[in-house]
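Entry under discussion copied across for reference:
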Amino acid sequence: MSAVISGVGETDYSKRSGRTTTHLGMRAALAAARDAGIDAREIDGVVGFPHSLSSEDVAANLGLHALRYSVTVAMGGAGSVAALGHARLAVESGAARHVLILRARNGCSGGRIHERPSQLPAQHFRTQLEHPYGWNTAAQRYAMICRRYLHEHELTREQLGAVALAARAHAQLNPRAMTHGRELTMEQYLAGRMIADPYHLFDCCLETDGACAVIVSARAAADGPPPVRVLGVAEGRPRTPDDLTNRPDLLAIGLAPAAAAVWERTGLAPADMDAAMVYDCFTFEVIHQLEAAGFAPEGGGGKFAASGAIRLGGSLPVNTHGGLLSEGHLSGLNHVVEAVRQLRGGLGGTGLGARQVEGARHVAVTGWGDLGDGSFAVLANERGTAR
């Protein structure tokens, strides 16, 4: 039995939803069930996340009277891709038939990132050693990783800007994107106000209200959309995953071993990917992960991005929906949704219109979480699994 992604769903993405996270989550879940061609009450597994809707919330509101599998994945933004692994194991073992992965958040109107409860590990490090020095946001922590990279490798602001501009250009082809209708030029990017050196305004992801849902099933409904297979998925962690300031190597992240494991298990390589959805909390982390996963050589990610390779029409289109930088921030589950739609469109038909990657067979999806946790998956349509 091989796991397939049978359905995906999402709400609109906004700065002020005016709705509870429960309402948003149920809308996305019902949309995913309709997409999968099943009654939502057939869902019998739930993968959730900290500080989000619990399995009990989901079961009560969807009327799931036969929920028999549930798990919470605490890997921050790496959790959305890691969740595919948990869902896959559940359906392939027979523990559940249809597993719902659900992210719902009022990430803008319900509390900005510095106001929300932290799920970072080792809170005594955070509160006793970092907060007294004013170091308490994701931008501040991850800027230090980028500064280390700048010490070891060449990286220009224009190369970081190439990531931001590619995401924004793709968002102009996506009516659901929060930045749709707002183009970004290099001049505007370079003039963005400082957030945490070297990150300026447009290096940072959006804060978003909305919800995404993905259903992983033992088999696809006969009258449903083309199934997308989870060919491989793995997770990894850096050394000292609870601490960043004392880490032996700031640039060694969990994505590297996760990607290596997936390449080995699937027999595929970076060159086999038709597109990649890369967790883009900050512009440098796209470059960082492209190198860690083997899409670009060490120290060469900036040049790779600036070459146009990550744009539609390039050798590896990245975040064709606009990503966290320009579509919306649903902790990377919207990356999985976009990968599924790209693969369905790769079989022919209308697809995603101007942002469709023609003939897409394999799409890689990455997750980045907490202080460098990583997750990596390769998804494929039926053309991709027949190779």
